[in-house]
Amino acid sequence: MANYQIEDDASDTESYSVKSDESDSISALDKLPVPETVSSFIPRALETQPAHFDPVQSLRRGKSKLKRNASQKSAADPTLVTWDGPKDHSNPKNWPKSKKWTATLLVSCFTFISPVASTMVAPALGDIADEYHITSSIEKILVMSIFLLAYAVGPFLWGPLSEVFGRVRVLQAANIIYLLFNTVCGFAQTKQQMMAFRFLSGIGGSAPQAIGGGVLSDCFRAEDRGSAIAVYSLMPFIGPALGPVAGGYITQYTTWRWVFWSTSIFDAAVQVLALALLPETYPAAILLKKAKELRKQTGNQELHTDREGPDHSMGKIMTKSLARPFIMLCTQPALQLMSLFRAYLYGLMYLVLATFPTVFQQSYDQSVSQASLNYLSLGVGFVGGLQVSGRLQDRTYAYCKRHQIDPCASLFAKANWALPEYRLPLALPFSILVPIGLFIYGWSAQAQAHWFVPNMGACIFAFGLIICFNCAQAYVVDTYNTYAASATGAAAFVRTMAGFSFPLFAPKMYDSLGVGWGNSLLAFVSLGLGIVAPIAMWRWGIWLRSKSTYCVG
């Protein structure tokens, strides 16, 4: 009995046992990533494969990756606990489709609730400031943005914990923390209490962003994952756009405290459903539980999984997960530039969100509920951009791969057949939409043109922003295949710090420059970054990756 692993991505493996008549085993596949919008891999052809092993045929079509189990030192390890064959029903990838989609929808709900809470308070900031006697514009904005500061910290806690205790258990525990402190935000009596409770609720709310995507990776094989990823990926962007709409009506017709209590009620309902319907999906955690049960039943204490041992202790995992993202952020130019690009876009999104109450309530004299409806323009832009991004990005990538386009001809005779740089061409034309949208939004609002015009500008801005953001995200994942989790963690830290800090300087900037020139300043910077970042990485990306020990290719 020889043991092998199937890998759908760098962060998740599944093992199963394979009977072999040969004395030698199947040779390992080389790890060669072919990126998609989120992450999937197309393997090279197998060097050798036994004709009787049916799963190999699917591997040759690029559906998964077969490689020798790293813990297997000999031809057989009778004490290694793995899946009971490739069709083991306890393997989440073999669950019924209804069970997989139940998990997808519940995780997507968790991922939707937290971003909603991050911006739902925006229409209520004036009432909160009046009640707590907040006179500083920075403190007023901080009530909203401190939630994002917790987003920068939380993933470094929840990611390592999920590797030890499992994804679903950590996800639900973190959500209880969010539920508790989001609820007590509605009972806060001072601004200090409000700030502290918002930060702690953000710590809990960051878990779905950190590990929710891993649940989908556990449940779906690469070729079946697209629809699930599309639903999940939409939530972090549609949530911040829809939150203020509900927050505006709640604030106007009840009290700002119900902004927090209403989200807690919805979150509690999702939590109850998750406790009943969302089982553990992390393969390593499932196999650990299986090994414990087998040891108890058989009395054989030698039974183990490949995730048990000193290398997988809590201390080792925490040290590695905490240190590597910052090491990469300080040493990887490709990651630095793309992180800066993504951070600026993310910061702009929250900055624009923070300006809506001032623009539409003061300049257009709209009520809180009427002004909140203008956030829908951002939601329309995000949804439209995601639809276009997925289709065009795949086509652009396929075209570059088919024609073997070499972005760095002077340094390399010919490009590899699958380059992360093939994700970048789409970002260049659509990055122009970001400053165009900012110009339209800023100058039409300052001139008090019809309310439709600034909303059109905001929609164009959101449309271009989400496409550029997805291109940069795909490039980071493709470039740092094996270390994609650490790379995205580092990029997420920079991004959320921008989302936290940008709204803080917005009041001073707009007071000094006005909405027109303030947005123009941001537009000029985004124009420069939108041109420089994609072109620089297209031209020198291969060279930078060749100098890195973390990059693929």
TrEMBL record:
<dbReference type="InterPro" id="IPR020846">
    <property type="entry name" value="MFS_dom"/>
</dbReference>
<dbReference type="InterPro" id="IPR011701">
    <property type="entry name" value="MFS"/>
</dbReference>
<feature type="transmembrane region" description="Helical">
    <location>
        <begin position="424"/>
        <end position="443"/>
    </location>
</feature>
<dbReference type="Pfam" id="PF07690">
    <property type="entry name" value="MFS_1"/>
</dbReference>
<feature type="transmembrane region" description="Helical">
    <location>
        <begin position="270"/>
        <end position="288"/>
    </location>
</feature>
<feature type="transmembrane region" description="Helical">
    <location>
        <begin position="449"/>
        <end position="471"/>
    </location>
</feature>
<feature type="transmembrane region" description="Helical">
    <location>
        <begin position="229"/>
        <end position="250"/>
    </location>
</feature>
<dbReference type="InterPro" id="IPR036259">
    <property type="entry name" value="MFS_trans_sf"/>
</dbReference>
<keyword id="KW-0472">Membrane</keyword>
<feature type="transmembrane region" description="Helical">
    <location>
        <begin position="372"/>
        <end position="392"/>
    </location>
</feature>
<feature type="region of interest" description="Disordered">
    <location>
        <begin position="1"/>
        <end position="31"/>
    </location>
</feature>
<feature type="transmembrane region" description="Helical">
    <location>
        <begin position="195"/>
        <end position="217"/>
    </location>
</feature>
<feature type="domain" description="Major facilitator superfamily (MFS) profile">
    <location>
        <begin position="103"/>
        <end position="545"/>
    </location>
</feature>
<feature type="transmembrane region" description="Helical">
    <location>
        <begin position="170"/>
        <end position="189"/>
    </location>
</feature>
<keyword id="KW-0812">Transmembrane</keyword>
<feature type="compositionally biased region" description="Basic residues">
    <location>
        <begin position="60"/>
        <end position="70"/>
    </location>
</feature>
<keyword id="KW-1133">Transmembrane helix</keyword>
<feature type="compositionally biased region" description="Acidic residues">
    <location>
        <begin position="1"/>
        <end position="12"/>
    </location>
</feature>
<feature type="region of interest" description="Disordered">
    <location>
        <begin position="52"/>
        <end position="96"/>
    </location>
</feature>
<dbReference type="GO" id="GO:0022857">
    <property type="term" value="F:transmembrane transporter activity"/>
</dbReference>
<feature type="transmembrane region" description="Helical">
    <location>
        <begin position="517"/>
        <end position="538"/>
    </location>
</feature>
<feature type="transmembrane region" description="Helical">
    <location>
        <begin position="343"/>
        <end position="360"/>
    </location>
</feature>
<dbReference type="GO" id="GO:0016020">
    <property type="term" value="C:membrane"/>
</dbReference>
<feature type="transmembrane region" description="Helical">
    <location>
        <begin position="483"/>
        <end position="505"/>
    </location>
</feature>
<protein>
    <recommendedName>
        <fullName>Major facilitator superfamily (MFS) profile domain-containing protein</fullName>
    </recommendedName>
</protein>
<feature type="transmembrane region" description="Helical">
    <location>
        <begin position="141"/>
        <end position="158"/>
    </location>
</feature>
<feature type="transmembrane region" description="Helical">
    <location>
        <begin position="101"/>
        <end position="121"/>
    </location>
</feature>
